[in-house]
Amino acid sequence: MFYPPSPRALTPDIAANLARMLPTGVRSAGLFVDASDDLIADVTARVPLDMLQLHGDETPRRVAEIRGRFETPVMKAIRVATADDLALLPEYEAVADWILFDAKPPKHVTALPGGTGIAFDWQLLQRVKIARPWMLAGGLTAANLAEAVSLTGAKMVDVSSGVEDRPGEKSVALIREFLTVAAALRVG
């Protein structure tokens, strides 16, 4: 997470140390929000990332620029509240390697672009053809994961606030519980 306003934000040095501890076969992604090329270059020079997750208001053109410049697979987060929020999906699918569907945060100044613990109406994805690999995020917890997967058909999920005691503080017990449910559902 390379977005300083987030309570989950890391410095490139801390992220590099964590990346060195990853077991073989575990892939790493760096999350950026409307980041400059300089920031992405600084991070990728120090942290071995397998994917860049773009979680801001990046346009399809900007996604294509980042993917081309950094020659790293890109996942574009699409924030969803209504069916209208899915209108640009085909344009993002044309330039991103992966799509992440997350809940659109509330419209107030202090809202973060993700990790808010808010879910969206997962049924919205039932009516959408998705041409790229994708992940589901947004308010996922061990308690609602089965419903979310059942409604969307998600094979991959992304969780953050749903395994925290408070913003930025992960709970080992909640992580274990979430992973147990995910394993039973055969969701990555």
Précis, in short:
The chain is 30% helix and 15% strand.
Question: Termini distance?
Answer: 20 Å
Proportion of residues in β-strands: 15-25%
| Main sheet: strand order | 1-2-3-4-5
Class from secondary-structure proportions: alpha/beta
CATH topology type of the domain at 12-123 and 131-139: TIM Barrel
Tally of individual helices:
6
Oligomer: single chain
Q: Please outline the major beta sheet.
A: 5 strands, parallel
Q: Architecture of the domain at 12-123 and 131-139 in CATH?
A: Alpha-Beta Barrel
Strands, count: 7
Shape: globular
In the CATH hierarchy, what is the superfamily of the domain at 12-123 and 131-139? Answer: Aldolase class I
N-to-C SSE series? HEHEHEHEEHEEH
Mean pLDDT: 92
Supply Rg: 16 Å
CATH class of the domain at 12-123 and 131-139: Alpha Beta
Helix content: 25-40%
Low-confidence stretches: none
Give a description of the structure.
By secondary structure, this protein is of the alpha/beta class. The chain has a domain at 12-123 and 131-139: Aldolase class I (TIM Barrel), CATH 3.20.20. Helix content is 30%, strand content 15%. The protein has 6 helices and 7 strands. It has helices spanning 12-20, 37-46, 60-70, 89-93, 145-152, 172-185; strands at residues 29-32, 51-54, 74-80, 98-103, 134-136, 164-166, 169-170. Helix 2 links the parallel strand 1 and strand 2. The longest helix has 14 residues, at 172-185. The mean pLDDT is 92.
